[in-house]
Design goal:
Elements (H helix, E strand, L loop, with lengths): L1 E9 L3 H12 L5 E4 L6 H8 L6 E6 L37 H20 L4 E6 L10 H11 L19 H16 L7 E4 H8 L8 E6 L7 H7 L12 E3 L5
Parallel strand pairs: 1-2, 1-6, 1-7, 2-3, 3-4, 5-6
Helix pairs in contact: 3-4
């Protein structure tokens, strides 16, 4: 099977940037998504040129740091804190009015265009804290795909480890969301989960899906087990063959 190993949060800090690029040098990470409004995104953008075989996407953001589109601050007010930065999970707690969705579209356009100005060749979409998987965001995502000709996107998580027990209702909603993404023209992997879960669930036998995206967070302290996995070439532990690819090859 073909596996994309994507590192989230490129551009959030110098230490995260270093950890991601070191993992790319070891060829255990093949892709990354960039926070356009992250404090260290310009440094990250310069270093992407060193990794032409890796893919770099947009980590669309509505949950952290300041919006890039100043003109939309009024319409984004319900998801901003007192410091005019995105207020964590507020996007999941407010009414997604047409005006707010239009402001989200404008903000995400600014984020994408800022990375284009930094000469990043953009391969795919995902989002900080997975906010792109909010169902009402689908028309926004379709509009972005049409405007920027970026046809690939991360699906909603559809594999869980043995200690997790998602409800059947949640799983049905996720299957529906992923099916809609494909129906409206996005190209996706068949499976999405994190690296640790994949190795726990599929360590002995491959999944039915022919392609997978595995999420990682190099340099992020809550992911110590993952850091150990990324220190070595983990595919060699599997009893079946996999090919590590980037979103360029999907």
């Amino acid at each position: 099977m073909r596996i994309i190993v994507n590192a989230d949060d490129l551009g959030i800090s110098e230490s995260v940037n270093d950890s991601i690029f070191q993992a790319m040098q070891r060829r255990v990470v093949t892709s990354a998504t960039m926070l356009a409004n992250g404090p260290c995104v310009e440094e990250a953008a310069r270093r992407t040129k060193e990794f032409p075989n890796c893919s770099f996407g947009v980590h669309l953001n509505l949950t952290e740091f300041a919006p890039m589109c100043v003109e939309s601050h009024r319409d984004l007010k319900s998801i901003l804190g007192e410091n005019n930065c995105f207020n964590g999970n507020s996007i999941r707690e407010v009414s997604l009015t047409p005006a707010l969705l239009r402001a989200v579209f404008r903000e995400w356009c600014h984020q994408i265009e800022s990375l284009i100005r930094l000469k990043v060749e953009l391969s795919h979409f995902d989002a900080h804290h997975h906010v792109h998987t909010i169902p009402q965001m689908i028309p926004v995502l379709v509009a972005l795909r049409r405007r920027y000709k970026i046809p690939k996107i991360r699906i909603s998580r559809n594999m869980y480890h043995n200690g997790e027990h998602p409800s059947q209702t949640l799983l049905v909603k996720k299957r529906a969301f992923n099916s809609i993404l494909r129906a409206v023209g996005f190209r996706t992997t068949g499976l999405f989960t994190d690296l640790e879960t994949f190795l726990q669930v599929c360590g002995m036998r491959p999944p039915a899906a022919r392609s997978a995206e595995l999420m990682t967070h190099p340099g992020s302290s809550p992911h110590d087990t993952e850091a150990g996995l990324l220190e070595s070439y983990w595919p060699s532990r599997l009893p079946y063959e996999v090919a590590l690819i980037s979103y360029k090859n999907l």
